[in-house]
Design a protein that fits this description.
Two copies of one chain form a homodimer. Helices cover 30% and strands 33% of the residues of chain A. The first copy, chain A, contains two helices and five strands. In chain A, a hairpin with a 2-residue loop joins strand 2 and strand 3. The first copy, chain A, has 87 residues and is an alpha+beta fold. The first copy, chain A, is globular, with a radius of gyration of 13 Å. The interface between A and B is medium-sized, with 35 and 35 residues.
Chain lengths: 87, 87
Amino acid sequence: MYVIITYDVNERRVGKICKKLKAHLTWTQNSVFEGEVTKGPFLKCRQEVESIININEDSIYYYIVENPKHIRKEIIGEEKGQFDCFF
Amino acid sequence: MYVIITYDVNERRVGKICKKLKAHLTWTQNSVFEGEVTKGPFLKCRQEVESIININEDSIYYYIVENPKHIRKEIIGEEKGQFDCFF
């Protein structure tokens, strides 16, 4: 499956969240990670991330496309993800 | 089609970009807009946004899923998009 994850979390938890997402996906820009992932690692990733966030303050959005062929990505301007996430 | 747009633009252009995206899509969180849109309005939206950005400094990512049934969205925590974008 192809997954895009965007997060809006308290800055105290950004580093932890970023580290966990980075283990499974690729950092794209700002608070966006994405990548092709199988079900098992995706569930592990979700469990890890969801154990860190405070659901009253933070939010995580998952966009899931089962068949990666069904999603097309186009980039205009600088591709930021070629550099690394700070965390 | 279902479109997710994420942007990383110089703060001087954020307001303008946000206004243009808001005319066609829904603000989700941080620098993410999304929504179901037909080809014509999507092309108009792209033209407007791409006429504002500086391609040497800014970046716009388009994720396009032709059939909205092929994408699933899950939210954990606070749903930010229910409030309005500042612009």
